[in-house]
Design goal:
The chain is mainly α. It is 65% helix and 6% strand. The longest helix is centred in the C-terminal third of the chain and has 31 residues, at 352-382.
């Protein structure tokens, strides 16, 4: 439906029928309006955006592609940008502020009220991928010495500017977090009750410098709508909401998928694969491919070392791709399972010895199962001796490949690197080189061949 609406809007804009184009999209949800404007030329998108009311503009702007948002931002005059920023969610405007040039930032800050200016500077100051970078300051915090009746009055006053009103955070005079109450608990409590007497004091929280992944885990584990964010002295600085965590989780998942495919993870979230330039796609992929090319030289060197053995029994070459690919496949499976387990917290770095024992057992069973099948082919192609070589090699290669795939994410975690860097192409390249050495060394030992 959105595709059809976008195409029709394009057609109406091309015919200069701006009123009909606006009527077509004005009742759509804000995310859908953002999708339509993303596909229009910047001047047309700007004209349609300015047809909406000021509050609507601010909401729609939050759903625009960051590149399109920056283009429209630069088409606005000073008063329009100030009004737009003041109507946006606090965390969204901080993200926009970070994408502006230094000159644009200074111009914007000069026109804002002091409180708004300080809020943007504070939220925009946190490092990427930290909790502080995705938190918002639009929440409701009340002193813990208020009564329920007083609290409900304050909530009515602050609700319009808060991102979430269903959870109320209770603080002391120094803004240290003391407890929390849900809106339901407040509504069911006696009006004369003091908040500190009925609040929940065992509050799950997080600090600004912790990684976003920790906030994702906590919100998913406890089913929170929001998570309070504190500094080192327990002062309440903001909250992380479930929708911001969902966005962060999607970004991290995208990065992990790219790393698993040996694609550089600096792919801009603002660019779709369809819209990405050839040069961008080239830069994303060339680094790891070149590295893996040189890595595969070791496989070639291993084959060259056993030239005499290969010349003596050409049948061995038939099984080479089958065997080394099996090791790479087993390693990729093991690596994928381990990266996922480390990312979700099911497995921790200290569990490596336990997982090593388990992987040895699993890989042995896998190797034996695969060897049973390949032994028949080996017997048919080269007799009992070749069948023995191929079967034994299959067991060893699958076990070694699985262990490489399991251990590499642990090693990367220990080195404070992303375990997702243990990508399938990387695992496969390592297993290829190791597999060649295993195969021909076993063949050299078991077959009646001249020593190499």
């Amino acid at each position: 439906m959105i595709i059809e609406l976008t195409q029709l809007t394009h057609k109406l804009v091309a015919q200069n029928k701006w009123g009909q184009a606006f009527d077509l999209i004005k009742t759509l949800p804000y995310p859908d309006v953002g999708n339509v404007l993303d596909k229009l030329p910047s001047d047309a998108a700007y004209k349609l955006l300015m047809t909406f009311g000021q509050e609507q503009r601010s909401h729609i702007f939050a759903y625009l592609n960051p590149v399109k948002a920056s283009e429209l931002f630069h088409l606005m005059d000073g008063d329009q940008t100030i009004a737009l920023i003041e109507g946006m969610d606090h965390d969204v405007r901080a993200d926009l502020f970070n994408r502006l040039t230094e000159e644009d930032r200074n111009t914007l800050l000069a026109g804002l009220k002091p409180a708004e200016r300080e809020d943007i500077r504070s939220l925009a100051s946190y490092a990427e991928k930290t909790v502080g970078a995705i938190m918002t300051s639009a929440y409701i915090a009340l002193e813990d010495d208020l009564t329920v009746e007083q609290a409900l009055l304050r909530i009515r006053e602050k609700a319009a500017d808060a991102e979430i009103i269903y959870q109320i955070y209770l603080i002391d005079k120094q803004r240290r977090l003391k407890g929390t109450l849900s809106l339901r608990q407040l509504l069911m409590a006696e009006p004369s009750a003091v908040l500190r007497d009925i609040m929940v004091t065992d509050v799950v929280s997080i600090t600004t410098d912790e990684p976003q992944s920790q906030a994702i885990k906590l919100i998913a584990h406890y089913d929170f709508l929001a998570l309070p964010v504190l500094d080192g002295e327990q002062h309440l600085l903001g909250i992380v909401t479930h929708d911001d965590v969902l966005d962060a989780s999607q970004e991290e998942s995208t990065e992990d998928q790219m790393l698993l495919g040996s694609v550089r993870a600096d792919y801009p979230n603002s660019t779709s694969l369809k819209d990405a330039s050839i040069w961008l796609l080239y830069r994303m992929r060339v680094f790891w491919l070149v590295i893996l090319v040189f890595g595969n030289i070791f496989s070639g060197a291993g084959i060259a070392h056993f030239e005499d053995l290969i010349e003596s029994m050409v049948t061995l070459v038939f099984f080479l791709p089958l065997l080394i690919d099996s090791g790479g496949n087993a390693g990729s499976q093991s690596s994928t399972l381990m990266v996922r387990a480390l990312a979700t917290g099911e497995v921790r770095a200290r569990d490596w010895t336990f997982m090593l024992g388990k992987e040895l057992s699993v890989s042995l069973l896998l190797g034996l199962s695969m060897a049973a099948g390949v032994s028949l082919i080996g017997f048919w192609r080269g007799g009992a001796e070749v069948a023995l070589v191929v079967s034994l090699t299959m067991v060893v290669i699958v076990m070694v490949g699985s262990l490489i795939g399991m251990l590499l994410p642990f090693i990367l975690t220990r080195l404070k690197l992303d375990p997702a860097s243990a990508s399938a192409p990387l695992i496969t390249s390592i297993c290829d080189g190791v597999g060649v050495l295993i195969y021909f060394n076993i063949a050299n030992l078991l077959l009646d061949m001249p020593s190499i």
